[in-house]
Structures are given as C-alpha cells and as structure tokens.
C-alpha cells in the first residue's frame, strides 16, 4: 500500500526532517507514528498525500510514485486518501451534511449516491441526527467525528490521521479511536500520528518512532516508548 525508499527531505532552512526513511506498510495495517515534537512526524505524514514533496527518494502510495507525479495529478491522488486533521478544517458556513457531501460533489458523484453515502458515514460516526447543524453547534469531539466521516465518504484505501485526538478530552479521544478502529476493521489502511501515550499502549498496533528525522523503531504491537 505504502512504500518509502531512501526518502530524504531537507527544508530551505536546512532542517533535515527525513533522513533516509525506508518503510513498507501493507493494505489494512493500522500504524501509529510517534516521536518528540519536531522529530519529523508531520513531514512523514504530509509526504504520503504530497503536501510535502521529498528532496530525494521514492514514495509509492497505491501504486503511484508521489515523488514523480505532476502537480496537476495531485488532486486526483488525494481523492483516494482520507485525511483527518487535529483542527478539523470544516467549512463553517456549511451544514455537517454539506461538509461531507462536498467531497463527493467535487468529483461529480450522482446526487442520489451522495445522499446515501453521506448518511451511511454519519451513521457510522453516530451523528446522523445532527446532519443539518453547523460545525459551531457541535462539540470538538463531534466536529472531529465529522472530519473522519468526510475523510472516508469516498471509501479511500488509506486514511491519514494527524493528531486526531490532540484537542480532545480523554473520553472523547477513546470515542474517536473506536471509530478509527472500525474503519481499519473494514480493510482501510490507517496511519495515525499521535502523542497520546495511553492510546498507543492500550490499543496495540504497529508503532513507527521517529527522532531527528530518522526512523529509530518499527515494531509490531509496539509501545509509545516516551515519557509524558
């Protein structure tokens, strides 16, 4: 599903955020990405959906080499990748239903199909009854559920979650994890960058640890491995 071969990323300020990443992630895997702030986790995540382009090396996602595709092909690539952000990134003037439907409208899906898929994902995240509300009428946890629903409405093979529980209280964080687990159980690959030690140590999955732009640990059913 995902392969990084000798991937390097040096920013203009000289920071080497990726120093020889070599990773192979299979379809259907759930992978935590952990490490200190500034270690290179965000670069690792963003390179998978071409928000960041590597300085050197190959990144192959679902058979496409992201290091070599033209910029004009990037939007098409992202239609097959769901991304969940820490700060939700919902459109404030659109209802919950409209926020999710927008992802299907841009690819000109049929209205009947849009309605079915939007209501299906709203049911999965437990918000079918709030479809007509605006984002500011929901709690932070509910907004994150909407963000997840939006990320999977295209039935992507890959979901990338960047600190999806970072702004949430502990109870709500577990609710979000249960949804991500359900998505993974359906065969979707889930890559989750997180600082949540308790979640990583309780719900066991593969752990990739990054420090100073290097992968220092890659363990099946690993622990968080850092204090705090």
TrEMBL record:
Matches recorded under NCBIfam families: FtsE
Gene Ontology biological-process entries: cell division
Gene: ftsE
Subunit structure as annotated in this protein's UniProt entry: Homodimer. Forms a membrane-associated complex with FtsX.
InterPro entries: AAA+_ATPase (IPR003593), ABC_transporter-like_ATP-bd (IPR003439), ABC_transporter-like_CS (IPR017871), ABC_transpr_LolD-like (IPR015854), Cell_div_FtsE (IPR005286), P-loop_NTPase (IPR027417)
Ranges where the ABC transporter domain occurs: 2-227
Name of the protein described by the UniProt record: Cell division ATP-binding protein FtsE
Domain of life: Bacteria
Membrane topology value: Peripheral membrane protein
Function text: Part of the ABC transporter FtsEX involved in cellular division.
Locations listed in the record: Cell membrane
Family: Belongs to the ABC transporter superfamily.
GO MF terms held by the record: ATP binding; ATP hydrolysis activity; transmembrane transporter activity
Keywords attached to this entry: ATP-binding, Cell cycle, Cell division, Cell membrane, Membrane, Nucleotide-binding, Transport
GO CC, one annotated term: plasma membrane
């Amino acid at each position: 599903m995902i392969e990084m071969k000798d991937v390097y990323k040096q920013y203009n300020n000289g920071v080497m955020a990726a120093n020889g990443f070599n990773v192979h992630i299979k379809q259907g895997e759930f992978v935590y990405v952990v490490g200190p702030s500034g270690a290179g986790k965000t670069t690792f995540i963003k390179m998978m959906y071409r928000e960041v382009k590597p300085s050197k090396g190959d990144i192959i996602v679902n058979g496409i080499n992201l290091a070599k595709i033209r910029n004009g092909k990037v939007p098409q690539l992202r239609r097959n990748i769901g991304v969940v952000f820490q700060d939700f990134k919902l459109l404030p003037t659109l209802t919950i239903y409209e926020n999710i439907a927008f992802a299907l409208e841009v690819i000109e899906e049929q209205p009947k199909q849009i309605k079915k898929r939007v209501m299906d994902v709203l049911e999965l995240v437990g918000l079918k009854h709030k479809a007509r509300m605006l984002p500011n009428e929901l709690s932070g946890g509910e907004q994150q559920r909407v963000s997840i629903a939006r990320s999977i409405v295209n039935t992507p093979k890959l979901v990338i979650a960047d600190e999806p529980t970072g702004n949430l209280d502990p109870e709500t964080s577990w609710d979000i994890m249960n949804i991500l687990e359900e998505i993974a159980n359906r065969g979707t690959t889930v890559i989750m960058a997180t600082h949540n030690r308790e979640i990583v140590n309780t719900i066991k999955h593969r752990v990739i640890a990054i420090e100073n732009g290097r992968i220092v640990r890659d363990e099946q059913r690993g622990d968080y491995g850092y204090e705090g």
